[in-house]
Amino acid sequence: MWRPDIVDLGQFYKGLLGQVARRHLTVAIRSVWPDLQGKRLLGIGYATPYLRPFMGEACQVAALMPSNQGIHHWPREGPNRAFLSDEFEIPLPDQSIDRILVVHALETSESARHLLREIWRILDADGSALFVAPNRRGLWCRAEGTPFGHGHPYSHGQMVRMLRDCMFQPGTHTSSLHLPPVGWRPVLRANQLLEQAGRRLWPGFAGAHLIEARKQIYAATPVPSGARFRRRREAIRIVAQPARNSRDEDPALRT
Questions:
Q1: In what order do the strands lie in the sheet with 97-103?
Q2: Which secondary-structure segment (H or E) carries 84?
Q3: What is the rounded CA–CA span in Å between residue 212 and residue 170?
Q4: Pick from 111, 250, 137, 147: which is nearest to 198 by CA?
Q5: Which residues is 214 bridged to in the sheet?
Q6: Any idea where the domains of the chain sit in the sequence?
Q7: Nearest to 6 by CA among 79, 89, 67
Q8: Class level of CATH domain 6-218
Q9: Sign (positive or negative) of CA dihedral 171, 137, 154, 183
Q10: Model confidence over 62-110: pLDDT tens digits?
């Protein structure tokens, strides 16, 4: 699946529409996580525009950028806190992170379920992850000039089912980006009014879902459907093979 690269993502958030999107999403993220004092925070995908408000609050803040996206130094001032990694093999110990913010990652991942299983592994038993993904009913998933217009958008029900299948317990759900994804200056000047009106009048057509989820400890580990199919096919292949005669296996027994 095609994923916007680091240059495209950076240019979007430098523009006026990107700054407006960041402002509204930051408010929504803060409504779910009002205080992360003393927590270890990891952003996955392109989460750096939303991590800065937590830098003076969380005890550790880092940003994982997928290898097929690219990376830049972050933050601009001070030591680098961003690292490049395969999203399916994150180089962190089990249960080492308290909070994980996933932005511009789930919808463009080659395997969202494998990404979720890796997030489950590194998340602390008492931790939580906040997933931000484009809403399939909204206008932003159709705006290809934004990062929300790429990959696989989700309905609320689809995200909840996928999270449960991957051993997460979905909790708080909110939404953001109720304003249209239009870069016209009159629209951008009225972004606060449009966001408030959209939240009241058409809440189901928001641009992005935000769902917080906690890991389920006492649950059976799910086997991906593809793996089940491969195992079944392998079992059928083995059973279908004719039994070999012992004389065919040992040359000394051949006549």
A1: 82-85, 60-66, 40-45, 97-103, 123-134, 208-215, 168-176
A2: strand 82-85
A3: 6
A4: 137
A5: 128, 169
A6: 6-218
A7: 67
A8: alpha beta
A9: negative
A10: 999 999 999 999 999 889 999 999 999 999 999 999 999 999 999 999 9
